[in-house]
């Protein structure tokens, strides 16, 4: 009987050992991640960086409410509220954010009137709530604002004047819109800008933000 060369015997043994070690690499490993169940929603990129309570707000974490996107449209009862809303932003000041303009427009096909506050600088925090009477911030004197119901919006920190003292927004203004009858700058005091919206009724609203501006939509 012929004897096999030593290197052939060594090769056979080595191959057998390698095959035995590679038979069950998955034993004891974690199972592959499963897909999320149908209907589950992924967290949005805007869910951090601001403290939010109340109704729908874009670009911030919202508790118990729908989020409003960059091009909002009525999406059901959760997108609208008549309760108070507060969103906290803490931009570094100075410079204090300046409200440079207030614009408005009707959107009858979408079912709302919109008012926009143009902001120079970082966006301030903002709050909104219904009030029974509009009073000037600082003096507490009543202000006559056209409308049957009043939604008060307060921006903070913010100012309605330049650092040189020039006023940027002021006064009481009628709009001619079906629900948003008017708006009035009710205060520019100690880093707070207060703007009252005169409405025809207590309507559902939503407040949110886009680059360089904060908007309020009021359902018609």
Model description:
This protein starts with 5 loop residues before the first helix and ends with a strand. It is mainly β. The protein contains 1 helix and 11 strands. The strands form 2 sheets. A 7-stranded antiparallel β-sheet has the order 1-2-5-6-9-8-7, with no helix packed on it. The protein has a domain at 71-219: Immunoglobulin-like. 7% of the residues lie in helices and 34% in strands. The longest helix has 16 residues, at 6-21. The radius of gyration is 30 Å and the shape is globular.
Strands, helices and their partners?
Layout: H1 6-21, E1 51-53, E2 85-88, E3 98-107, E4 112-120, E5 125-131, E6 149-156, E7 172-174, E8 180-189, E9 192-199, E10 205-210, E11 213-219
Antiparallel strand pairs: 1-2, 2-5, 3-4, 4-11, 5-6, 6-9, 7-8, 8-9, 10-11
Shape: globular
The third-level CATH topology of the domain at 71-219 is Immunoglobulin-like
Please, how many helices?
1
Distance between the termini: 102 Å
Report helical residue fraction.
under 10%
The CATH top-level class label of the domain at 71-219: Mainly Beta
What radius of gyration results from the CA coordinates?
30 Å
Strand order of the largest sheet: 1-2-5-6-9-8-7
**Structural class, please?**
mainly beta
Structure, briefly:
The protein is 7% helix and 34% strand. The chain is mainly beta.
């Amino acid at each position: 009987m012929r004897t096999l060369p030593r290197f052939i015997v060594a090769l056979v043994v080595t191959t057998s050992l390698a095959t035995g070690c590679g038979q069950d690499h998955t034993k004891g490993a974690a199972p592959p991640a499963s897909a999320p169940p149908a209907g589950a929603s992924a967290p949005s990129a805007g869910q951090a960086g601001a403290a939010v309570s109340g109704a729908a707000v874009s670009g911030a974490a919202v508790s118990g409410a729908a989020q409003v996107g960059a091009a909002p449209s009525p999406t059901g009862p959760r997108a609208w509220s008549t309760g108070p809303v507060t969103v906290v932003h803490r931009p570094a000041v100075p410079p204090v954010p300046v409200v440079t303009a207030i614009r408005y427009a009707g959107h009858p096909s979408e079912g709302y009137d919109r008012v926009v506050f143009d902001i120079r600088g970082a966006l301030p925090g903002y709050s909104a709530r219904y009030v029974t009477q509009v009073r000037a911030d600082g003096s507490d004197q009543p202000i006559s604002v056209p409308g049957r119901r009043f939604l008060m919006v307060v921006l903070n920190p913010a100012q309605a004047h330049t650092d040189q003292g020039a006023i940027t927004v002021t006064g009481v203004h009628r709009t001619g819109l079906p629900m948003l009858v008017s708006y009035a700058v009710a205060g520019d005091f100690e880093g707070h800008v207060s703007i009252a919206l005169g409405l025809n009724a207590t309507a559902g609203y939503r407040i949110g933000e886009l680059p360089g501006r904060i908007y309020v939509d009021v359902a018609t």
